[in-house]
Structures are given as C-alpha cells and as structure tokens.
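Help! Submission page says 'invalid entity' but I think these are all valid:
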Amino acid sequence: MDPAPEFRLYNTLSNAVEPVVPREAGHLRFYSCGPTVYSYAHIGNFRSFLTADLILRTAEALGWRTTYVTNVTDVGHLTEDDAADASGEDRMAKALRSKEGERFANVWDLARYYTNELLADWNTLNLRDPAVRPRATEHIREQIAAVEQLIEKGHAYETEQGIYFSVASFEGYGRLSGNEAAEQLEQLVRDTVSDPGKRDPRDFALWKKDPKHLMQWYSPWGWGFPGWHIECSVMARAYLGDEIDLHAGGEDLIFPHHECEIAQSESLTGKTFSKHWVHTRFLQVEGEKMAKRTGNFFTVRDLVGTAASGGRGVDPLALRLALISGQYRKPFNFTKETLKASAKHVERFREILSAVDAAAAAGAGGADRVGERLDALYDRALAAMADDLNTPEAIAAVIEGFKLLGGMRAQLNAASAAGARAWIARVNALLGIVEHEKPLAERAADAKDADPDAVRIDALVAERYAARAARDFARADALRAELAELGVEVMDTPDGPKWKRASTL
RNA sequence: GGCGACGUGGCCGAGGGGUUAGGCAAGGGUCUGCAAAACCCUGUACAGCGGUUCGAGUCCGCUCGUCGCCUCCA
C-alpha cells in the first residue's frame, strides 16, 4: 500500500484547501453543527451531516483517532436569528403551534420526538455516531456561566431585554464570512427590529429575558433563554476543549452563526477556537432550490419509507450514495436519475458481496489473484477522500473494484474471495455504501424490511416458480404480470426466484 | 448592493497546459423459456470571444449564463 496520503480540506477561514493538522498528532477533534429539532430533518440537512461523517471515516481510515461531537439544538434557534437581537420567534414554539405540532403536549415532547426521529434517520443513512451528542437544553448552566464570564471580561452587556455580545470588543469579527467592514455588517442587520438598548446594531443576543417563553430557565438576569449561537461555543468547549481542530456545518451557518461562535469563544478563552472551518454547500433538487412550496422537498423517510407509508421505496444506502455522489463543496444537483443509478450500484455491490462470500465458503484452491489490484483501487479511493473529500473520484475507484470482481466472480478462488471480502470491508468503512453498520431496530423502517404484502407476494412468486418448473410459461407470465401490478419485480436466479419492490421514483 | 461558487457529451459528475475519468441513459452483442441481472463493444465534451504558449477544456482578460449566503433553511 501507498503511504497514508495527507488529509486536506478546504478551509473557509483562508479560502484555500489546507492540510488538516490536529493539535495532537493523529487525533482529530471536531465539532459539527447539528439540526434544530423542530421537524424531520431533510436530505439537505443530511448532506451536511454526511460531510462530517466522511471527515470522520476518512480520518479513521488514515489511522487517526477521532473525537467527534455534534449537537442537537432544542432551544433558542429563532426564526430571525441573524446578527440581531433575538426578536424573532423560537422555532420550537412555532412548530408546536403548527398543524404537525398538534399531536405534542408541549415543546419538550416535540423536541424529544424529533430528536428520536433524527437518530432513526441518522442510522438509516448509515452515519456513524458521534462521541457525544449534546443537547442545548442540557447545557444551560454552562451557557449562563459563559455569558457571565463574557460580561466580566467586558465583551457583553445587559439591557432591559437581554444580554448582548459586543461586536466592537472583538477584533476578528467578520473574518470568516468576509463581512469585515462595519457598514457591511450594519447593512446585514438593517431590517431587524432593534432592542433600543443595543449599543451597536451588529451586537447579538447571548441571553434573552422572557418570562413568557415556553422554554425558560432562571438566570442571574431572571427568567429567560439562551441565544442560539452560544450553545455551540459552550458545548464544543465542554467536550473538546478551548481549541478544536475543525468545525463543520452547512454553508448558511458561516454567517452569522459561526462568526458569532468565533467571537464568543475566542473572547472567552483568548485562544483560537477552531483551526479549520468546513462548510457544505446546499444541494439543489432537479436543478432548483429545495423548498416545500415547489414540491421538491424531501425528508429521509419521504424517499426511504414504504410505498404504503407514503415513501418511495428507495434503498437507504442508495440514498446515501446519491447524496455523496457530488463533492460537498461544489454545487450539487440531486436528481431522480442519480438516485436510480445509485440504487443500481448498491444492488450490484450486494450481489457481488454475496458472490464473494459464496466463493470464500466454496474454498477453491489457488493464490489470491485480485488483492493487489484491489489494494491499488482502495489507495486511490482513500487518496481521493483525503483530497478534500473527492467522493466522485473515490466512488469511481470503488465501482471499478466491484466491476473487476463482477467480471471474475465465477472464477473466484477462496484466497481471492477472502482478499475481496477484506477490500469490501475497508471500502465500506470508508464510504459506508455497501453494508449497513447499524442494526435494523435502530433505523427508520424502510421498504425492504417491512413489506406488508410479503406473504402474498411470496405465495405468488412460489406459484409462478411451480408453473415455470412445469413449463407452463403462459401461466408463469400471467403471474409475472400480476406481480408487476403489485409493483413487484421477479428475477429468476440460479438460487431460485427473487423479488423486489420496484421503487416508485 | 456586499460576499462567494460554478458553467465538461442526453443526464449526473471527476480532472485541471501535451496521453481514457467514472457512472447513468442510448445503441449493438453474449447468456437465459419471458423478464431481470451479469459480462463485452460503441458514440457524442469541455458556455462564448480574445490573449499567453510550440501546444489550452486546463492559465489570463472580457462577455454571457446559472446558483448560493446576507431573509426562512444544512
């Protein structure tokens, strides 16, 4: 094998691809901003979570240790959370009042429900678990303490309505987003209603006084709730320390969220908060921005669920593959065609995997004849991933490997099969697109696993198989047609008939 | 208006001064009652206009176009 390649990622701070250099050699400690759990997460959210997942997998494939923290935001994220004064409405409260929110007794219940659903979708897409998944509501004490310290250090001040971070007190504000000029920043917040007590329009809320808020805690400033930005500063520090190696999130978080995090954290510690900042570009769907109003808005379950439950029967790993088929930093067009192609690939991966397993068990003698070529392809895939997560190139190498195995599967001897099996395992560890790493019980139900008509379909398939064996092809074809009506496709294989649900894309 | 990204064959998407990306789709073939799968073969490309260069899809400039953030949103 080649020596381990250098891990390079684009850094928003420097606008350049740079080597990832952990503070502690060989141990990457990073934080990725998680979602606000006021609804089901959609595929766009997951594209960003997948970036973090791929950073994790690539680092581990390079032999590094990792400490990966990603949060759940369950309070404080407002509908107008720009650099302003927390004058918007809390997303959680708004969701509770919506039609979907009627089923929940209170915001806490709603947060719990969507957090659980997030984890189910997370597992469905074969994302690895973080070392810690902190929640904002479980770190209120730390947030209050941080706000107190910021006041002590002269970086924050109190008004009648809340506590604000003083942007003027932090020199580096605007460096990440490039919004450096004060007038630019003032421009950005021009339309928001201001707390008249604010000293500078750029100042943002650390704590909002609000004894009527649905989620409130007692603080030195009375009842209220924390500002959105402070939670990530506090949780990253709690689990990763004052200085972290890398911080990731969606591109929309560059400003104001991450800009504010840097200001708070660095004002608090006097140290560099994160060396590397990685942002995932928004995906588009069929060439358009994903939006509920245009009908191209998809959650994981919209695509992966059974047809009976309103889903489209897409294989979960096919969805994963489709979502990583474009590089995280480039404009990415998520299309049905890509999803179909991904489904084909995942299906073929599985077929070849079982052929490999069969060959390994059959035990024909001889030397390993594919190992070297597969190793080279793995090295190519890993090098591509290390090069700013070039997933298209990595996937191309993997497909080439499966093609190689597919072409010679009839002649695979035991030694080659064992080598192939090891290769597949490594590829899967790197990209997670061949085999699921999570048990079924921890995933959201998908079409393959829970077909309500399975018994009936099995019966029809068996009947067709019998008709075929009796050479009654007219009857067999009639049954094929009947199954097709049910949306089922039958394949005759050397191991007997197999069937699958045609996806309803 | 400020900041930024991108324009590659029917589609998705790598590459990035001289030698095939890859996939999907399409067409042809082998195989199998049918169908599917698998495997083999085939075609079409770098938005436009200038410039640098022995040579540009690849560098520079301009033009056109698309998109993102700054408002909800990863």
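Support: the input was valid. A stray whitespace character was the problem, and the output above is from the cleaned input. Confidence is low (pLDDT under 50) at residues 80-85 of chain A.
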